[in-house]
């Protein structure tokens, strides 16, 4: 059985990490950090935007800032041609 995350990677998803800073509800002057990670598609990031929408509607801590890092884990193979050929019998 193939992992659903592997299938997402084959469909163009990459690993996305977001560092979210938010204000504490009881002490709005203080910032707390939260690290979120999932597979998402750059540059639109629909999964991350869905999570941030959920955060704003359901959680009390107001968002301060979001830093995003994204990397495609599956890429086309890099081929390099060499000037020689070796044969084994």
- Structural shape: elongated
Low-confidence stretches: none
> Beta-sheet strand percentage?
25-35%
- How many structural domains can be distinguished in the coordinates? 1
Largest sheet: 3 strands, antiparallel
Q: What is the overall number of helices?
A: 2
Characterization of this structure:
This protein is of the alpha+beta class. The protein has one domain (4-71). It is 22% helix and 33% strand. The protein is built from 2 helices and 3 strands. The chain has helices at residues 4-10, 46-58, and strands at residues 14-23, 31-40, 63-71. The chain has a 3-stranded antiparallel sheet with strand order 2-1-3. A hairpin with a 7-residue loop joins strand 1 (14-23) and strand 2 (31-40). The longest helix has 13 residues, at 46-58.
Please outline the helices and strands.
Layout: H1 4-10, E1 14-23, E2 31-40, H2 46-58, E3 63-71
Antiparallel strand pairs: 1-2, 1-3
